[in-house]
Amino acid sequence: MTFELLVLFIAGFLGGILNSVAGGGSFITFPALLFAGVPPIIANATNTFASSAGYISGTFAFRKEIMAHKTELLKITILSLIGGIAGAWLLLQTPEAVFMEAVPWLLLFATLLFIFGGQLNSSLKKLATIHRHASSMGTLLLALLLLGVAIYGGFFNAGLGIITLSYLALAGYSDINVMNGLKLLVSSLVSLIAIILFMIDGAIDWYSGTIVLLGSLAGGYVAAILSKKLPQQAVRLFVIFASIAITAYFFYDTYGSAFAGLN
Q: Of 11 and 113, which is predicted with more confidence?
């Protein structure tokens, strides 16, 4: 038990550092919860709870940038809450065996987004500049895209921030501080409404989640002190390596026996 608690705290600590410096902390915290024996769907819900504190504190830090776009806040809030509810509900209706088969694919999707998210956002910014005067159809499609982003976040938290940045780039935002603020706002809203559903369903392991959350807060604090000394590119490369290794492990763990049977 002591060893598992140590693993969870260290995972939260590393996840907090990664989220503060380069993102991708869920690649560490979600597998750690599984390693500690938390069932897959509960581990996913617990990871959402453990990540929420960082989202909320970050949203508060960017409150001035967020309020500069107050005309968009009602739409963002409503769509984020609806999508978060839908995603969390879908997770709770998913059989655990089906979810475990989906985990490698979800991690692969999040990994690819982490690796190529920068290029994707740059391309979307150019597209948004070309089509700056969006039609009513374009506005509707953007709303549906945000709804889809929120549904994904309610279902599986990893990669939510990167997907949200992609939406914001396509929506025509270019100020990185504003984008980061709105990204954290969406993540906070999606996570909080999902957590309410998870609480009602009893799908959160509060003990394990609190240990991860405390580690994450400690890691975020340390990262705030060391952020200027840590080479972000090196941290990003570490996250890419870790995410590829973890994704490959889950593919092997989930489908390895099936491939062995074919041979």
A: 11
| 24-33, 129-138, 189-198, 243-252 — most confident range | 189-198
Euclidean distance between CA atoms 158 and 152, whole angstroms: 9
Q: Are 121 and 169 in contact (CB under 8 A)?
A: yes
- HEC profile of the chain: CHHHHHHHHHHHHHHHHHHHHCCCCHHHHHHHHHHCCCCHHHHHHHHHHHHHHHHHHHHHHCHHHHHCCHHHHHHHHHHHHHHHHHHHHHHHHCCHHHHHHHHHHHHHHHHHHHHHHHHHHHHHHHHHHHCCCCCHHHHHHHHHHHHHHHHHHHHCCCCHHHHHHHHHHHCCCCCHHHHHHHHHHHHHHHHHHHHHHHHHHCCCCHHHHHHHHHHHHHHHHHHHHHCCCCCHHHHHHHHHHHHHHHHHHHHHHHHHHHHHHHC
At residue 103, the pLDDT reads 87
What count of other Cβ atoms lies within 10 Å of the Cβ of residue 169?
21
In this model, does residue 128 exceed pLDDT 70? no
Structure tokens at 203: 């799908």
Crossing angle between the packed helical segments 40-61 and 96-130, to the nearest 10 degrees: 30
23-33 core/surface letters (b: 16 or more CB in 10 A; e: else): bbbbbbbbbbb
The reported pTM is 0.82
- Location of structure tokens 């705030």: 224
Q: Cα–Cα–Cα angle for 233, 237, 240, nearest 5°?
A: 140
Sequence-separated (6 or more) residues with CB below 8 Å from residue 257:
none
| Stretch among 14-28, 78-92, 137-151 having the lowest mean pLDDT | 14-28
